[in-house]
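User: Can you predict the 3D structure for this chain?
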Amino acid sequence: MHSPKFSEPVNQGGDIDEFAFTFKVNIRIGAIALIIAGALTGIYSQLNDKQREVANFGTTALGVCIAGASAVHAYRGLIRSAKVQEREIRASREEIAASRQERISERENEAKIRILDRTIDYISRWNHPDFSSSRATMKKALLESNKQNSKLATYLDQHPDQAQDVVSVLNFLEELSFLTHEGDLDKEKLATFYRGIFDMVYSEFFQFIQSRREEKNREKLYEHFEKLHQEWQVNGR
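Assistant: Here is the predicted structure, written as structure tokens:
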């Protein structure tokens, strides 16, 4: 069997000593005050009426001075307290501003990361197997037409299945260009990969693009693709 455990008594010696010291100080102060009060009372009782008036006036004046000094001290205390509060408020505002700026920076970094991830995705999609047949069709159409715009447009009119593959590529490039102009993709990083592709598609399939615009009666068809191509031609990025 285990012997019962008793908690050790809390040592309160420090608290007792502190209480005893405070009690002694209070007694001494009270005794001194009592002696001073008794002495002043004895002196006051020995004064004549004239002297008592002077003493009363002096006591009143002293009280006023003490009250004034206390008021000045209290005012200075309020000023110091106000300055401390002002510093605390300023520090709190600065901390809030810094925290807000940190959150803004975090959101900006997160937005940049999302844009970069989306840009990488659009770059990788060009070489994705789903695009391989469309890219092969474009090469075949260029070979069959000897890279002549007028013949290419005619060839694609005669081969609607291949024309649809070309349209899929143009739609993809238009989507990419639109997102770039919206700020959802990194224009400079896209330029390093897509600038040559844009040059080839725009120059070789320009007549087909024009025929599509006339067919659909939409002059602005593929306008973002055309605009981004021109921007890369002028600025290089």
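Confidence is low (pLDDT under 50) at residues 1-10. The chain has two domains: 17-44+51-108, 127-235.
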